[in-house]
C-alpha cells in the first residue's frame, strides 16, 4: 500500500512570523513605555495598538495579528481582558480586507480601507463598553457608548493612517497572501 502524504502548510510562514514579531515588539515597547494619548478613564488611553494590529492583519492575516495584540495586553493596564474584547475588530476587518485590497483605484481602495476599519472599531467599541460597564462596573454602558463613538475619529486615525500610507506606498508588503485556515497541499 502506498501512502499519500499531504504537504503540511504552516499557519504562518517565516516572513509572516517575522513581520508579526517586529510589529508585536514595537507594540509591546510603545505600551510598556506608556506612549499613548490620554483617554477618558484612568486605565484607558489611545494606544497605538490598533495601528500595529491592523498592519499585522493586513500583512500576515489574523493569526499574525494576534501577536501584536497579545504583546500589547501583556503590558497594558487592562491586562489580557483586552484580547477577547478586541477580537470583534478581527472578525469584521479580516474578511473584508482581501476584497478591499483588490480594488484597483488607489483612492477608492484607501476610502474602503478606512470604512472597514471604522466598522471593525465600531464592533470592538461595543465590546469595550460592555467590559467596562458589566465586568469592571466602571461606567454605565450607554453613556460610554455615546462617548466612545464621539471619539471614533481619534480611533479611526490611529488604526488607519499608517496602514493606509503603507497600502499606498508599499502594497506588496500588505498583500493578503494569507489564508485564515490554510489548506494542506496534496
Model description:
The protein has 186 residues and is mostly helical. It has one domain: Orthogonal Bundle (Arp2/3 complex 21 kDa subunit ARPC3), CATH 1.10.1760. Helix content is 66%, strand content 3%. The protein is built from 7 helices and 2 strands. The protein has helices at 14-32, 49-60, 62-75, 82-101, 106-135, 141-150, 152-169, and strands at 36-38, 45-47. Strands 1-2 form a two-stranded antiparallel sheet. The protein starts with 13 loop residues before the first helix and ends in a 17-residue tail after the last helix. The model has no long low-confidence stretch (mean pLDDT 90).
Q: How many strands, which pairing sense, and closed or not: the largest β-sheet?
A: 2 strands, antiparallel
Bulk shape? globular
The CATH architecture name reads Orthogonal Bundle
Total beta-strand segments: 2
**Mean pLDDT across every amino acid position:** 90
Assigned CATH class: Mainly Alpha
